[in-house]
Amino acid sequence: MGLLSVLSLAHKWTSERVQTGDTVIDATAGNGVDTLFLCELAGPKGQVYAFDIQERALHNTRMRLERAQQEGKRLAPVELLLQSHDQMAQAVPEQQHGRVAAVLFNLGYLPDPNADPSLITRPQTTIAALESALALLRPGGLLSIVLYPGHDGGEEEAASVDNWARLLDPQAAQVAEYRMLQKPHAPYLIAIEKRKTNQTKEE
Amino acid sequence: MGLLSVLSLAHKWTSERVQTGDTVIDATAGNGVDTLFLCELAGPKGQVYAFDIQERALHNTRMRLERAQQEGKRLAPVELLLQSHDQMAQAVPEQQHGRVAAVLFNLGYLPDPNADPSLITRPQTTIAALESALALLRPGGLLSIVLYPGHDGGEEEAASVDNWARLLDPQAAQVAEYRMLQKPHAPYLIAIEKRKTNQTKEE
To answer: CDD domains per the record (chains A, B) (predicted)?
Structure first.
């Protein structure tokens, strides 16, 4: 069967925690693979928010969602937001704060030949966005982060996310890491589950 | 639901690869938790080999298996072997070489108040045993290693296993690591799946 790839495990753990009707967030729409995945999980009664700072990414995502709908897939309504994911708390309605089932981050650059390769996610906004995402999650909700240490600036970003996750209060969230050991530059997964019992943070 | 613990994930991945009737190995019998788990997975038509260098460990394991049988559990026959796991290739019959479905290693010391705390697994025999285990596995079989960096000598052992696993030929095996990031001294898992397509090693 093969060991699960990093992306497959991120999807598997997310799908175990999302029900139809849930609100979920794709923090990095990119080409829309994760957005489509979340739209299918949340279903027509759910709600998806997808962020990207590149018009091309939102265009690619929109195309992918339309194709899926034409193929008869029943998707959640989605808001495609051309803004940085560190603004997500402002974009998600207040009554959904603390009720989001899952947030996906797929960091790095947009894998599109027409994209600007200098546009990559940066540690400072990434950490701010991760903090927002954790606050938006419901207890038991999952924050899933796929890191790409292989590109320029990727290692630095991975190190700062790693460091941030490592220091999260264990009473507030539980953090696991999954990686393919023979490929130190390959993407790897940090999964963060918000605790159910304690609510240590003001939100 | 909580993120899976390291031990639960080791059992989950093992159970996904073992069928009733299979031959499986517990390289570190300890108190018999993994031996019992493997005996249930392999069932009465399977075969389990369990190794430990401490008589007390095999005694504890025997007690646990007997209790389970008295409770009506249907277990695989098991050979409890008082010898170092680096001798496993000699202990397992030759016709089973290359046909073993799974091997579990749970490294460190025996968690028993009457055990000798100076008896811990050591890098040199551990690596030799891991090499044997990989050779004994069938294609698609799983080698699961739980490492304990928290005790004296544990960090050194974990580092050498990590280093060994990291350098395995990707054509021969695939290696994943799973750990809880907030607990650097907690046990963590290295899972190694033998490749199905290539047989690069003479066995």
So the answer is: AdoMet_MTases
Strands of chain B, DSSP E: 23-26, 47-52, 78-82, 100-106, 137-147, 173-180, 188-194
Instruction: Please indicate whether, in this complex, the C-beta atoms of B175 and A181 are within 8 angstroms of each other.
Output: yes
pTM attached to this predicted model: 0.91
- Closest CA–CA distance from residue A70 to any residue of chain B (Å): 35
Q: What is the pLDDT of residue B132?
A: 97
ipTM: 0.89
* Among candidates A2, A3, A182 on the partner chain, residue whose Cβ is nearest the Cβ of B168: A182
- The DSSP code sequence of A13-79 is HHHTT--TT-EEEES--TTSHHHHHHHHHH-TTSEEEEE-S-HHHHHHHHHHHHHHHHTT-----EE
Query: Would the CB atoms of A140 and B3 count as touching at under 8 Å?
Result: no
Taking CB atoms and an 8 Å limit, are A190 and B179 in contact across chains? Answer: no
Query: 3-state class of B9 per DSSP?
Result: helix
Cβ partners under 8 Å of residue A36, min gap 6:
A61, A64, A65, A68, A75
Is A120 within 8 Å of A30 (Cβ atoms)?
no
CB-CB under 8 Å, B174 with A176: no
Low-confidence spans in chain A with pLDDT less than 70: 1, 197-203
The identity of residue B25, as a single letter, is: I
User: What's the average pLDDT block by block, 10 residues per block, for chain B (203 residues)?
Assistant: 89 96 97 97 98 94 98 97 94 96 89 73 88 97 95 88 96 96 95 78 42
Q: How far is the first Cα of chain B from the last one, in angstroms, to the nearest whole number?
A: 42
CB neighbour burial string for B87-125, b if at least 16 within 10 angstroms, e if fewer: ebbeebeeeeebebbbbbbbbbbbeeeebeeeebbebee
Phi-psi category of residue B60: left, alpha or beta, with phi > 0 → left and psi -120 to 50 → alpha: alpha
